[in-house]
Amino acid sequence: MVTTKQSELDKIKRTLIESHITPDLAAGATQLVFGEGSPDADIVFIGEAPGKNEDLTGKPFVGAAGKFLDELLKIIGLNREDVYITNIVKYRPPNNRDPLPLEKEAFLPYLMEQLEVIKPKLIVTLGRHSLNCFLPGLQISSCHGRPKRYQGQVYLPLFHPAAALYNGSMRQVLIEDFELIPNILSKLN
After folding, report:
1. Model's pTM, two decimal places?
2. Could you give the CA distance from residue 115 to residue 3 in angstroms, rounded to a whole number?
3. Which of 55, 56, 143, 180 is geometrically suited to a Cys-Cys bond with 92, CB 3.0 to 4.6 A?
4. Which candidate, 71, 107, 80, places its Cα nearest to that of 92?
5. Sequence-separated (6 or more) residues with CB below 8 Å from residue 166
6. pLDDT averaged per 10 residues in sequence order, the chain, 189 residues
């Protein structure tokens, strides 16, 4: 049997569920939110954890922040099927609290396996939690929109789309940062 990237991702998802990591988090969630999009994507977007809408649908970024992410993708001529979208933590934290360090640590090996299968040219971190998992010690406010190469991988730190929902002035910042993606990708090709 030929192994496809999608079958590899499905295997990681099964292993993740069978491993019963973060049982307290899993018990409070409706389901695991693994990720979705193209397993052959050049770009992977990584948020922090699912929210209420994501928990209900099993898909990442489907609430208000997800609608803004879709809008941002459209601005640069892409849609969800062209990219891969996931989170560090795959179960919704109670009351949408920030994921705890131990929770992020528990999910990180599975996220790294996802990335190893997809082999994206560009990883876009959405928000400080995602940024600090890959590039610890950086402040999102001072490095957003500036690509970073670390251990052979290129990262683009961006504010989380939800930031624009709470602060209207962030909307334009996110749009401008997003508009850098095609140029960054062309330099990587």
Report:
1. 0.96
2. 16
3. 55
4. 107
5. none
6. 86 95 94 97 97 96 95 97 97 92 96 97 96 94 95 96 91 96 94
Cβ atoms of 63 and 38 closer than 8 Å = no
In the block, which residue shows the tokens 């849609």? Answer: 79
pLDDT at 176: 96
What is the C-alpha to C-alpha distance for residues 46 and 130, in angstroms, rounded to an integer?
A: 6
**Sign of the Cα pseudo-torsion (132, 136, 137, 142, in order):** negative
Domains of the chain, with CATH numbers?
A: 5-188 (3.40.470.10)
Write b or e for each residue in 90-115: b if 16 or more Cβ atoms lie within 10 A of its Cβ, otherwise e. bbbbeeeeebeeebbebbeebbebbb
Q: How far is CA 112 from the centre of its chain?
A: 12
Nearest to 120 by CA among 84, 86, 88: 84
- Residue 108's contacts (CB-CB under 8 Å, 6 or more residues apart) are 88, 133
